[in-house]
Amino acid sequence: MEIPYTISTRPDTGLWNAKIGIWLFLASEVMLFGGLFSAYVFLRLDAQPGEWPHGLLNVPVGTMNTAILIMSSVTVVLAWAALKMRRYRAYWWYMLATIMCGVIFLFVKLYYEWPQKFEHYGVFIKPSALEKYERYLGNTRRTEKGMEPRIEISGHLHNSEALKDANIKEYEIGLDPVYVEPNNPANDRPHFLYVPPTDHIAKIEKEDVERIDSFGPWHSAYFASYFTITGLHGAHVLAGVLVFIYMWLPVSKKLYQRNPEHLANRVEVSGLFWHFVDLVWIFVFPLFYLL
Amino acid sequence: MSLKAFHIVFVIFSTLLALGVGSWCIWVNLVEGAPVYLAGAVASFACALALVVYGVWFYRKMKRLRIIT
Q1: What are the pLDDT digits (tens) for B23-64?
Q2: Residues sharing a CB contact under 8 Å with residue A137, sequence separation 6 or more, in sequence order
Q3: If I label B15, which of A165, A202, A243, B4 is the partner at 20 to 30 A Cα–Cα?
Q4: What is the ipTM of this complex?
């Protein structure tokens, strides 16, 4: 039995099946991402002034990834338009460009941005030992100025074997710039530019450490939100790329030869999904990277 | 809503983002003193302009080709 309304529209709704299906699906997606964005915004608003982290994400890299996603939305719509004009060759190239954009986006996320976080550590000092690390924390001056004391020293962990080896008594941290000059008034306010850890190494004794965590989802509410939202978004990008690959493979050419409008409709609904995913990133980028 | 209409909505949001990034770059230069971000601001505003031009071109092309779904 042939499924009706895959190409022609239903007379009562004026829509074909997949069009109404994708919009129902996207409505549920709006609720999913909407809830997560709301959670992030409320966590952010409830944070103490000056306590929310800034400058931990690489803005130029994020901007490049944003541009790649915007470009992919252009190529997918051009692929669809090429199909409507029955230009299969042009469709093939535009679809390939879309797939490549999605793959590059994921590659940058999985092989550059995320691993960088897992190599970056925050060492939380026990309250009783804070004075010992005053030269990195600068809490005397902060207290005088009525600011919250620093309890964390962060940077690149040089001796990662110390995490497992009980015989190693101290952590060697290549300090983030703020801990090299903790009393510099310029470091009293948050910085919005990502600066890599310095070569200045601090040795922190294990017995003075309350906990040590990489900048993973377990580190703070900020990174929990960051990994949840960008992870979910990344999963959507991956799903979109897989669908596009299917539509780019020879199996779809057979459908094109049999019924080009059917393939055009499939590309349109997957293009709608792709646009939604890219639109989500248009909100993720400023929220996490800029503000 | 068709892909064509959603694409135009997307281009509008992208343009707003490019304008926002440009403004952010100017603000960062003022606060952090990083002149290289002025170049970022110029690039962002140029991207915003390019997106507007593209949006108008896309709308006219779709209208001309009568690709209406």
Answers
A1: 998 988 887 777 888 888 999 999 999 999 999 999 998 888
A2: A125, A130, A149, A150, A151, A153, A179, A182
A3: A243
A4: 0.91
